[in-house]
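_Full entry_
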Amino acid sequence: MRRSGRLLFGGRARRRWIHLILGGALAMPYVFVGSLVLGPLMGEDDIFGSFPLNLGSFAAGLPIAAVTSLFPLTRPLETGAVRALCGVDGDALAHGPARTRAERARTAVWFTLHLGLGGIVSGMSLSVPPFAVMLMALPVFAGLRDLPLAPHFLDHTWVLALSPVAGLALLCALAACAAGCGALLARWAPALLGPSQQDRLAAAEARAADLAVRNRLARELHDCVGHALSAVTLQAGAARRVLDTDPDFVREALAAIEETTRRTVGELDAVLGVLRDGDAPGTAPAPTLADDLDGLLRRTRAAGQTVTAAVDADPAALPPLVSREAYRIVQEGLSNALRHAGEPVTVRIGSAGGRLEITVENGLGAAPASRPGGGHGLRGIADRVRLLGGTAQAGAADGTWRLHVRLPLTAT
């Protein structure tokens, strides 16, 4: 019983009822135009004095409404009303005007249904409640039985006893009719006002492009900031431990900290420039193997880490995209070595068979402190490698952690 009451008189049902009444209000100008067409044809001056002619005017106005629905603003206005009043998910509806013939046809069908069902429910909402109230009041107010339009059988006792029930039943029937029409419109709205296949494809492509940009920004922030923080933390710790015994190492560590933070601030500004709406991207270029491999190794060694590098490929001859992604992969491999405190670290970069091969190996030191949610470095490496069509392997074996990556040199 409670569920039936919500279906007939709940908030959603009331909003859909309002939506139908708005459709009836929109139908009135078309009914007037239909009466102007139907009156001369039927030879009647008083169209609204005849119920059949009223229905005829209503039916004649609906095709006119279908034609006017072809205006571009019809679909945005209707979808806005459906979102606000019918309880339909906004993603299931189109956002802009109809562009294709099929979209315009569906909009015309929807507009005609909205005005048609809305006109019927609006007419019932105007006529049924007064009659139902009169039926419920008949046993109490005897004067209602003497009204000119009152049927002669109202004097029977059994009619007076059942009239309140009949009046209540009429109100429930009106609510059920409005709820049913509103539910039908809500069910048909995604099919008639929903996006076309082209709209869905364009929206999916836009979401995919936005997600790709967000993922790239997340990877860039993780790699540049994460590596810098790891390096600076270890450099500061190493300098603190030998502050009184090795001033030269302390000066070297402080210089490395200054260089690391300055460079990271530039990279961070470049990445955040993409996020600033309307701002131009930062001017700091993305680092590549050709630009900063030696500096990356030097800053890592300044933290007290033993790093051996063997470079058998010419970084300057690498495609810019491959060189940039390879730099980030090497940077993340060194960051993992710094975090895990595994020494020594070996970096090998070479080319064979049209592929750039990167290997980073380090000993398995003490397990690092766990972080909530874990790290994302290896996932970021996998994403970079997958986008370039390469392969990546990472794991521990024989007391050594090994990261091995192959990148095609023809990646674009």
Notes: The beta strands are 307-311, 345-352, 355-363, 391-397, 400-408.
